[in-house]
């Protein structure tokens, strides 16, 4: 049987449709966007809203729609997931994410906290002591419904205890039990982030007890998560899958076999995988423009990005830690970046020689669409990149 070949142009066409960048593929509700992308990157709170707004047929009500889904209907949940990173997931995926990635990360996170806490307190803060503190803190959180860390410290003062992290190292610093413990409880799926203290761009959140979910077998949960992601992001290489999930290569291969993934060849001689039902391509897809935020799940979807992110824009669009900033897309590839001036005006820069008049007019129209729903709100990315800074200062 001949191996199906999927070239770069077809990969980009698949991306445009699966990631709802085409106007014809835009969604009606925030949940539809999240399910389409599997996960919305949540490290920068504004990314969630901007990523959804870019993919809604009518972005005007984006903020209210996301807040409804997160805090009223609870159809979306903000929790730790792959690579110890905060994402927003469809609530029905919470158990799958917890079993497939959270358990292993949580065990490592708790072991690390106990070791660092004991070493940094000369044995004063013991595992038994921590157990009593977290039981008390969780009980207080359940009584309150939602609470900030400071509010929980009022109910359980031991949360304010400190220990020395990295004693004797160049990065030695005091850490407070509360901040580390809440992070561990989050990875363990025992608490989740609730409403922010400020507006939708705020990075300060209240905490709440996580809703109960089923305990799933790890292998089955990994197959479920990988299958969903591959349906959206295939074809993807083994390296892409390992990077996105944070799993061992043996776990990736086991999950690929479980979902019956089909191997395909890619431009450049690489090999990728698609779901069985996605072997055939989507046909011709009209090019379209999109303005995506920093850390958007499309821009951060693959480890190997050459097919959609030209080398000449990387230095301007990424920070030193590998976080991508706001990007301009055309036809399933990055063609520039964008930012905002102090007054909220959306400004952008395209690759030299990009497109003709029609393409540039489409980009300008999409910028206007983004600016209209932002309504002058100035969004500063949490991880700032060279081009975004330059455009914002212009």
Structural commentary:
The protein has helices at 8-18, 30-37, 45-53, 62-72, 94-119, 127-144, 149-155, 177-187, 218-233, 238-245, 249-258, 311-317, 357-374, 386-393; strands spanning 5-6, 40-41, 76-80, 86-90, 162-165, 173-176, 191-196, 205-209, 262-266, 271-274, 289-292, 327-330, 333-340, 346-350. With 394 residues, the chain is of the alpha+beta class. Among the domains are: 92-209, no CATH class; 289-393, no CATH class. The longest helix has 26 residues, at 94-119. It is globular. The termini are far apart. This is AlkZ family DNA glycosylase.
Largest sheet: 4 strands, antiparallel
Total of DSSP H or I helical runs spanning 4+ residues? 14
State the total count of DSSP E strands: 14
Mean pLDDT: 94
How does the helix and strand content classify structurally?
alpha+beta
Considering DSSP H and I runs of 4 or more, what fraction of the residues is helical? 40-55%
Shape summary: globular
| Terminal CA distance | 56 Å
> Which strand order does the major sheet show?
11-12-13-14
The amount of beta strand, in percent, is: 15-25%
SSE order in H/E notation?
A: EHHEHHEEHHHEEHEEHHHEEEHEEEHH
Secondary-structure map:
Layout: E1 5-6, H1 8-18, H2 30-37, E2 40-41, H3 45-53, H4 62-72, E3 76-80, E4 86-90, H5 94-119, H6 127-144, H7 149-155, E5 162-165, E6 173-176, H8 177-187, E7 191-196, E8 205-209, H9 218-233, H10 238-245, H11 249-258, E9 262-266, E10 271-274, E11 289-292, H12 311-317, E12 327-330, E13 333-340, E14 346-350, H13 357-374, H14 386-393
Parallel strand pairs: 1-9
Antiparallel strand pairs: 2-4, 3-4, 5-6, 7-8, 9-10, 11-12, 12-13, 13-14
InterPro entries: AlkZ-like
Protein name: AlkZ family DNA glycosylase
């Amino acid at each position: 049987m001949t191996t199906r070949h999927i070239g770069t142009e077809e990969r980009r066409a698949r991306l445009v449709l699966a990631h709802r960048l085409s106007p014809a593929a835009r969604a009606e509700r925030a949940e539809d966007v999240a399910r389409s992308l599997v996960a919305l990157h949540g490290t920068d709170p504004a990314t969630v809203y901007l990523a959804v707004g870019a993919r809604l047929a009518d972005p005007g009500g984006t903020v209210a729609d996301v807040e409804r889904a997160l805090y009223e209907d609870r159809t979306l949940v903000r929790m730790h997931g792959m690579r110890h990173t905060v994402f927003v997931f469809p609530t029905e995926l919470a158990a799958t994410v917890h079993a497939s990635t959270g358990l292993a990360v949580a065990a490592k996170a708790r072991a690390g906290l106990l070791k660092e806490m004991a070493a940094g307190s000369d044995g004063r803060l013991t595992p038994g002591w921590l157990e009593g503190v977290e039981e008390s803190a969780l009980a207080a959180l359940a009584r309150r419904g939602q609470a900030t860390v400071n509010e929980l410290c009022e109910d359980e003062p031991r949360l304010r205890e400190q220990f020395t992290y990295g004693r004797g190292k160049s990065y030695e610093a005091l850490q407070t039990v509360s901040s580390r413990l809440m992070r561990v409880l989050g990875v363990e799926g025992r608490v989740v982030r609730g409403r922010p203290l400020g507006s939708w761009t705020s990075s300060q959140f209240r905490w709440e007890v996580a809703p109960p979910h089923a305990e799933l077998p790890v292998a089955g949960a990994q197959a479920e998560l990988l299958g969903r992601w591959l349906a959206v992001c295939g074809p993807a290489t083994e390296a892409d899958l390992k990077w996105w999930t944070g799993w061992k290569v043996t776990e990736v291969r086991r999950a690929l076999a479980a979902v019956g993934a089909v191997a395909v060849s890619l431009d450049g001689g690489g090999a990728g995988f698609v779901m069985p039902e996605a072997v055939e391509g989507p046909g011709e897809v009209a090019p379209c423009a999109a303005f995506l935020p920093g850390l958007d799940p499309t821009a951060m979807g693959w480890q190997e990005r050459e097919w959609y992110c030209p080398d000449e824009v990387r230095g301007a669009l990424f920070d030193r830690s590998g976080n991508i900033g706001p990007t301009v897309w055309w036809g399933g590839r990055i063609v520039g970046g964008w930012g905002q001036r102090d007054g909220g005006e959306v400004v952008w820069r395209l690759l030299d020689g990009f497109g003709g008049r029609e393409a540039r007019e489409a980009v300008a129209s999409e910028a206007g669409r983004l600016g209209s729903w932002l309504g002058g709100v100035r969004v500063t990315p949490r991880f700032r990149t060279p081009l975004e800074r330059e455009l914002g200062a212009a």
